[in-house]
Design a protein that fits this description.
The structure is a single chain. With about 110 residues, the chain is α+β, with helices and mostly antiparallel strands. The protein has one domain. The protein is about 35% helix and about 15% strand. It is built from four helices and three strands. Strands 1-2-3 form a three-stranded antiparallel sheet, with no helix packed on it. α1 packs across α3. It is globular and about 40 Å long. The N terminus is likely disordered.
């Protein structure tokens, strides 16, 4: 568990990372990105059909356009430092993964 102490407030988090196998396809990778965004934003704003990256082959032309548009609207450069936070490759919470999902928790002493 990661933790940061600041005055009398302790910020910690539970690692909720799971292994994912994403097909080597650009559309599937965009859908996985939207899946990740969906998992960290309150209310899960995206419908399942744009985040179901395992079934990327079955998407219609219009759905493919929608996926690309959503990925552009939720640009990772805009979310970096707000929703996603960069850490060093050797950060303990990564546990060998290329990324990690941490469910935040705050405790006041």
């Amino acid at each position: 568990m990661a933790a940061l102490a600041y005055h009398q407030t302790q910020i910690s988090g539970k690692n909720t990372t799971t292994r994912a196998t994403v097909p080597e396809d650009n559309l599937a990778k965009l859908m996985y990105y939207l899946y990740c965004v969906n998992s960290v934003l309150a209310g899960s704003p995206f419908p399942d059909y744009v985040t179901d990256y395992a079934n990327y082959r079955s998407k219609s032309k219009d759905t493919k356009k929608e996926i690309v548009l959503l990925a552009a609207l939720f640009n990772p450069n805009e979310l970096l430092g707000k929703v996603f936070h960069a850490v060093s490759d050797s950060h303990s919470e990564l546990r060998g993964y290329s990324g990690a999902f941490i469910e935040p928790g705050i405790r006041r002493d």
